[in-house]
Design goal:
Strand content: 35-45%
Number of helices: 3
Helix content: 10-25%
Low-confidence stretches: 1-18
Oligomer: single chain
Number of strands: 8
Shape: globular
Distance between the termini: 40 Å
Radius of gyration: 18 Å
Mean pLDDT: 88
């Protein structure tokens, strides 16, 4: 009887966990962390086999409740990551959108401990009621010269994949 209950628990636990996943290309990213503070709900997702302590790719989703315009969110976000800028950010307007506001920030960040770089594509958009952001972070090893080969080969694919995620 105990074995039967344990098997049922594992089956239902995996089903519940699997429902908190996002498809991103050929990978599935599952939720590993969540926070809900000051009208900002944040969820982080990682591929199977990666952890918050050891990850290579991460998707972060945020909902800024009670914010209706990007100008209410973007300045604070940019100021929070500005000390980590390794290169000047790139800003792209999403022309193919149904949302009133929709932009991408492409960032190369140096971790505060200088152990790694992160290439981040962050999509911010407003549906007129709330502001959302979805970012894809790709970890790059620290080096005197950053190897952007993988980033350059995948940048536009990652942009399209972010565009396809609905919160």
């Amino acid at each position: 009887m105990r074995i039967y209950i344990a098997i049922l628990f594992v089956i239902f636990a995996n089903t519940a966990f699997a429902s908190d996943c996002i498809s991103f290309g050929e990978s599935e990213f599952c939720q590993v962390w969540e926070s809900d503070k000051n009208d900002v709900k944040t969820s982080e997702y990682l591929p199977n086999g990666q952890s918050l302590e050891a990850w290579k790719n991460m998707i972060t989703v945020r909902k800024y409740s009670n914010k209706t315009k990007l100008k209410e969110v973007l300045p604070n976000y940019v100021n929070s990551v500005k000390p980590m800028f390794a290169l000047a950010p790139e800003i792209l307007q999403n022309e193919d959108t149904s949302y009133p506001e929709d932009v991408y920030l492409l960032l190369t960040l140096l971790a505060p401990d200088k152990s790694r770089y992160e290439y981040v594509i962050n999509r911010f958009y407003s549906d007129g009621n709330d502001v959302y952001s979805i970012f894809y972070s790709h970890k790059l090893p620290f080096a005197k010269e950053i190897d952007f080969t993988e980033v350059m080969e995948n940048k536009y694919k990652w942009l399209e994949l972010l565009r396809s995620i609905e919160i």
